[in-house]
Amino acid sequence: MHGDLNLIFSRVWSVCLLLVWICLGTRIIGVVGSHQGSIPLHVVKLWASAFGGEIKSISAKYSGSQLLQKKYKEFEQAVRVQEIDGLRLVKKLAENMEEMFHKKSEAMKRLVEAAEEAHLQHEEDPDLQYEYFNAVLINEIDEEGNSVELGGDFLLQPNDHFNNLSVNLSLSVVQVPTNMYNKDSAIVNGVYWSEALNKVFVDNFERDPSLIWQYFGSAKGFFRQYPGIKWRPDEHGVIAFDCRNRKWYIQAATSPKDVVILVDVSGSMKGLRLTIARQTVSSILDTLGDDDFFNVIAYNEELHYVEPCLNGTLVQADVTNKNHFRMNLDKLFAKGIGMLDVGLTEAFEVLYDFNQTGRGSACSQAIMLVTDGAVDTYDAVFAKYNWPDRKVRIFPYLIGRESAFADNLKWMACANKGYFTQISTLADVQENVMEYLHVLSRPKVIDQEHDTVWTEAYVDSTVSGHRSPISHMLPQAQKLEDGQGPILMTTVAMPVFSTKNETRNRGILLGVVGTDVPVSELLKTIPKYKLGIHGYAFAITNNGYILTHPDLRPLYEENKKRRKPNYSSVDLSEVEWEDKDDILRNAMVNRKTGTFSMEVKKTVDKGKRVLVLHNDYYYTDIKGTPFSLGVALSRGHGKYFFRGNVTVEEGLHDLEHPDVQLADEWTYCNTDEHPEHRYLSQIDAIKLYLSGREPHLKCDKELIQEVLFDAVVTAPLEAYWTNLVLNKSENSDKGVEIAYLGTRTGLSRINLFVVPDQLTNQDFLTAEDKEGVFNADHFPLWYKRAAEQVPGTFVYSLPFNTGNDNKSVVLASTAIQLLDERESPIAAAVGIQMKLEFFQRKFWTASRQCAALDGKCSISCDDENINCYLIDNNGFILVAEDYSLTGMFFGEAEGAVMNKLLLMGSFKRVTLYDYQAICRIFSESSDSARTLLDPYFAIFATVKWLLTELVIFMVEFNLYSWWYSDLTAKAQRGGRTMLVPCDTEYPAFISERTIKETTGNIDCEGCIKSFVIQQIPSSNLFMVVVDNKCDCSAAGPITMEPIEIMYILFTEVVLKRWLGGVWPEIGTGWLWSYVRL
């Protein structure tokens, strides 16, 4: 302990000395009038003007921007500009989604009706023998070459609608969990009567060809899936999948519930019993969903909340909370005497108090009792809290093989409308835990409540295409390792009940039917062209979790193949974090219709750049679902769109040009609805639609009219670019490689000035370049950035893609406005890709010019005493004498200068937050809980935070890595690293448009560093010339590295010690606070 205290005081003393040294030694302040800058401003202005004129001339010439602007001007009188009615738009989109969801629900209703009728007509036969197609055994043969039992020949053919998986569109298959007997009487009877679903599966698919997997999960445990497909066991020959554990099954089978789990931790629970009890609690947690609320209380002679911070309340059963409780189960130890009456009393009072707050599920309430026995029936407790209404059901789980106290537990269950289960081994846990679901489903069964339920979004773990929630059992060849992208899905499900007279009063649940709906199906109903360049649509569940949002990132960044933990429970407030009061979120959760506005900071280019926008939000509910829909429109050009008009003949003629492409993920025509249309390209579908020969082809008439208009207006650029290519005197050094344009309707034209094999960056404008092409929920990055520049200017940038080769090109783009007015809609954007070497050569040529009559320049970028940089409006270096600095943030190369620019207002820092971040941590072999529970460590962390914040504030110096190095080193010695979810804070930088030029001086340890920054005309670029004779490296760099937000748990004892024994009036218990490290 003395060693730790010495370390703490040593650290604090070091920081104090550092602060004194900073204050006395390095002063990063402007010196006014004390030193004349050695860099003449007029010379730098000359260089900037020369380079700006040259590079704009090249960009305008090869992009054809002036020609395209002229062509749109010619049509100015023929177009109608309209302001978007956001509220009307969101209501219309909600109606479209409602219609799509309704079609899926109707398909499920037909399955429910068929299943219930088939069961009604079936008589149970305990001796029934029936051969069915087992999903694992189909097409398997034995050693003698014969089909195995329950296998047989099952025709499978690749189908493009199911991503070329081999399926059978006429029949379904049946999967039975490995721990169940394939030919159990209950299973064989269920499989037999559910064969009637095959006809309905096929009929549903014919009515709605956009349907993918349909299935029936039986309460007996088997799973019927259509279309039929072969399943593969894991490497151990096991298929652990049990449909009854899936969220869609549980949500459909039961109503929302409030649950208190009581766990006996008396001395008799030692050893295997406690292990089984922990597993039982974990399995109960598996059955809880986002609509449920719970808590876990352990008891002996005292009560022990598994999470002490949540004493006396219930929490939502989302993934994060359930995982947190699971981790704490390992801290339970058996000792003492079990006082069940105390535990029951606490459980009843928690349920009652929580219900009185108006929170919770407001439906079912239950107490799950996990114990090895009860010495009494405790009827006095039940009489006081639960009788006569019996609103709380009791579900005892007797742990162990002994049955001495079973009668008391059985009485509790029967007297309180519950169910008794005995669990003797770990293998019994899962099956026995599931029994309570049948009891909780009885009210729905008896009342015949066929509620339609929708799950939150989840990531399909297989290849891009249509998959089901059981896809992890499909052939290994179809796995994500093939490099394909994953899919976000939601599932619609409905319960199936027994309608036989003899069972109606008992409420028998037969199972649940369901089908998957890819979120991409929702996006197809959203016309992106009506939302503008920065606009987007998003949907959330009734719990505030995101169903679809362009900022939802469910996968790890490194390989894009692993799902993040808790990805399905990302809250709207974590992506629309500027809404500090959750006004938008709460309104949407409460299914209201309305509007909301706020300034937002939208990151682009992999989070390295930021656009500051003012968004107007419009929201409403999607009827018949638990979802709410929102639309965000950016003010200015984002609130307007225009309609043009050309003849069909003109439009089709120009649409068929070989350089024309349409956005792959936009729906001009719905080619998925009918199989005969699936092979059509969007352009072919448009031609077929306009011919009038295909009445069943549904297309967006308005979008088609506008894309025909854009095709006609942009057509002259094809001939313009062709002339440039044919003119051998132009672009002789092949510095310009590509010219491209995009319009508000998703139409693109691309022209190559070099052969494809000679392209420096061959990913640009391809499917691999996700941010560079039109997507289902966003415009290309170069389009979005150009739209925010002053009209007539070009935006230049280096692409931030992976790989060093991508630093060798520069992109330039500019927006084409329809009108000269400020709020004119953006009609299109054009640009070029040029070689970085070509771009830099133009810069260095311009920087050698001077106005001296004798030709002797007073200063040049070739001089050893100055450094010349070309940076963009976000501070990234495009040109530097040291080529390795290309693409780097300017603050890392010239920290003192960047800090001065921030102080002078030439640049401003924008603080951003990422609540979906992934951090790399070092796993320690020691107990990691020490860092949270050791009071001295908590005090040390707090003091460290305060001092670090002070240092950062004074000198813009990143001390985090230095200060945290000792802890990191200790963890590194512990072994491997791992990726974990975390929250981070990080900066972005943006230039001030009104400041065109600035000079400054920095006093650094007795010498003065001068610099000049000059904007490049008609661009987003700045030339920065820095005197390098004065060394200011002591100031340290300014980086864009994210800082993890650490949440540290303080106990009463820690806070009291920290506050010198004075306890502020913040209540008792525990306090959550966060410290940013």
TrEMBL record:
The lineage of its organism: Eukaryota, Metazoa, Chordata, Craniata, Vertebrata. GO terms for molecular function: metal ion binding; voltage-gated calcium channel activity. Residues 258-440 form the VWFA domain. Keywords: Calcium, Calcium channel, Calcium transport, Coiled coil, Disulfide bond, Glycoprotein, Ion channel, Ion transport, Membrane, Metal-binding, Signal, Transmembrane, Transmembrane helix, Transport, Voltage-gated channel. Residues 90-125 form a coiled coil. Belongs to the calcium channel subunit alpha-2/delta family. CDD domains: PDC2_MCP_like (cd12912), vWA_VGCC_like (cd01463). The chain crosses the membrane at residues 12-33. Signal peptide: none annotated. InterPro entries: Ca_channel_alpha-2/delta, VDCC_a2/dsu, VWA_N, VWF_A, vWFA_dom_sf. Its main location: membrane. GO terms for cellular component: voltage-gated calcium channel complex. It is a single-pass type I membrane protein. It is found in: Membrane. It comes from the Eukaryota. SMART domains: VWA. This is VWFA domain-containing protein.
